[in-house]
Amino acid sequence: MEVSYIGVDAGGTLTKIAYSSTDSDTIHYHYIPSKDTKLILPFLQSFSKQSVITFTGGRAQLLMDELKIDNREHYIIEFDATINGVHFLLQERELAEEPLIVTNIGTGTSIHFTDHKRHKRLGGTGVGGGLLTGMSAFLLPNERFDEVLRRSSTGKREMIDLLVKDIYNSPSTPINPNLTASNFGKIGISTASIPTSNDILAGIIGMIGEVVSTLSVQYAEACSVEKIVYIGSTLENNPMLRETIESYTTLKNKNSIFIDNHGFAGAIGAFLRSKKQ
């Protein structure tokens, strides 16, 4: 297929690629683990030499060097690419443009404000997909990541997390008794049963969801914003993480938005830059 425009988001964990052909406006999506450079390079080199390509992401320079591309016109700042991609995806869903918090859960988590006319990075945290993949590799070094997610879905967070009701041990509590008082706080306190690796995985995902949504809600309140768009490859095929984020965001009277192909927002932003060249 003759390809005219390509956007590459070279992240710390995954390299996401968005591209279109000359005979169609349809955007195609593909991803490859970033550590597999020997797979990424041949895939990109398989496109027509006439194609226009733009890179973004932390590993963009590495790929540009490997492909001997040194023109800065072929690069877009990651934050700009991501926000542009988010707006494109929102327009596809015909969602109204309005002030938003955009939380990108990649290897780490980055949180932004945007009102379509401008955007600003507000902050972030090292708690994100890298924590999940790192701890998964430590606990289950021989398991594929999709199997890790499957196993986490059977885990029980109440086996390891200390809840408000565990502390008060009373029907009357000053706040919701089912809220987490301390992530992993029950380990070492309760000897009633031993948590499984699946329980620990569930606890890790729960902690990521709670930290990310708590920060996002705080920034939303500071910016007087009601809607938070959550994106990032860490959410893919991860219903527990999405449910945790959605539940806490709703609890704090904010609206969470999840959009299709959100993990490719950066690649889409790079793709859109290619189309402008």
From TrEMBL:
Record flagged with keyword Ion transport: no
Record-level GO cellular component terms: cytosol
InterPro entries linked to this entry: ATPase_NBD, Type_II_PanK, Type_II_PanK_bac
Enzyme Commission identifier(s): 2.7.1.33
Keywords on record: ATP-binding, Coenzyme A biosynthesis, Cytoplasm, Kinase, Nucleotide-binding, Transferase
Top-rank lineage group of the source organism: Bacteria
Molecular function, one GO term: pantothenate kinase activity
A Gene Ontology biological process term: coenzyme A biosynthetic process
Lyase listed as a keyword: no
Name assigned to this protein: Type II pantothenate kinase
Record organism: Paenisporosarcina cavernae
